[in-house]
Amino acid sequence: MNASYDLSEISREQQMGGLGRETDREIRVIDLTDFAGRRAEITDELWSAATEIGFFQLAGHGIAQDRIDTVFELTARFFALPEPVKAKYPLVKANNAGWESLSQVRPSIGVPDLKESYQVTRPHMAELWPSERELAGFRDVVLDFEHQAWSVAMRVLSCFTDRLAMDRDHFTKAHDPGSAQYQSTLRLLHYFAVPAELRGVEGRWRAGAHTDFDCLTLLFQRDGQGGLQVCPGREMAEQEWTSITPSSSLITCNIGDMLTRWSDDLLPSNFHRVRSPGEGEYQGDRYSVAYFAQADRDAVIQGPQGKYPPVTAADFLTQRVQANYRPQE
Fold first, then answer.
1. 301-323: per-residue pLDDT in tens?
2. What span, in angstroms and rounded, lies between the C-alpha atoms of 297 and 295?
3. Measured on CA atoms in the order 131, 132, 136, 137, is the torsion positive or negative?
4. How many C-beta atoms lie closer than 10 Å to residue 177's C-beta?
5. What is the C-alpha separation between 82 and 78, in angstroms, rounded?
6. Which terminal residue of the chain, N or C, has fewer Cβ atoms less than 10 Å from its own Cβ?
7. How deeply is 43 buried, as exposed, middle or buried, from its count of CB atoms within 10 A (0-12, 13-18, 19+)?
8. Is 160:48 a contact under the CB 8 Å cutoff?
9. Where on the phi/psi map is residue 147: left (φ > 0), alpha (ψ -120 to 50), or beta?
């Protein structure tokens, strides 16, 4: 099996695996402070964490805490809008832009994720922003935050180019916010509070096991709102999962399938899921914000060793969706 995993290659029993087992893995925290002066050191740390686990966390990333807090405040206010208001801005699947609720069905569990989300993909947001009367300041703050997340993602990806014998701006050129082909997405997420009658019930998932299809995911979380678990794909059969402690100040990152392909499998994507809270854990609404850095539709993906034939990012994503979300017979 290659480092980029199809759920079709993992048995349904392995995908679901009940609760599996909790296993401690080191989720390394990498400090990006003084990036220019410490670039070589940071590159070594990122490469080691990415190749060994596929998940890591960033400190010293440069996004002010008050900016992060403001985005979460606006995220909660957006999802608190009446459903008829949110329904005015429905998800356009072809463009990955807009609001959806209880509609993403993971093959790993066969039922919708217990969440709603709002996708922001820059070239496709016409008519999809709530009005200033409905949510003042939302558009400007969210777009500014999306750009800051893009900047952090490009810094991380530029470090990987040093190890992949690519030009340092290779990935930056392929993720151009000014292009009509831009398809990186900022996703605001709201996982619903657990109803009283279902608290403590095992085997429930807020989001089933999956890999991301992008190059790099940046996840912003809130203190005390846990549930994210990871399992490297090569270890999926053992069903040993590691919980990631949420932090309001750290960015949790993972490698996606697109970068696995682009690196000729040197940088592995891995599985992750969001479990429902257990007895004694916080049972309320869980909010997170994810930035998915995925190359522009017309960007050509080919690794330095030429292990795989070249493919556009648009075609690659289509292939990943078809491989993982096959129609049920």
1. 999 999 999 999 999 999 988 77
2. 6
3. positive
4. 14
5. 9
6. C
7. middle
8. no
9. alpha
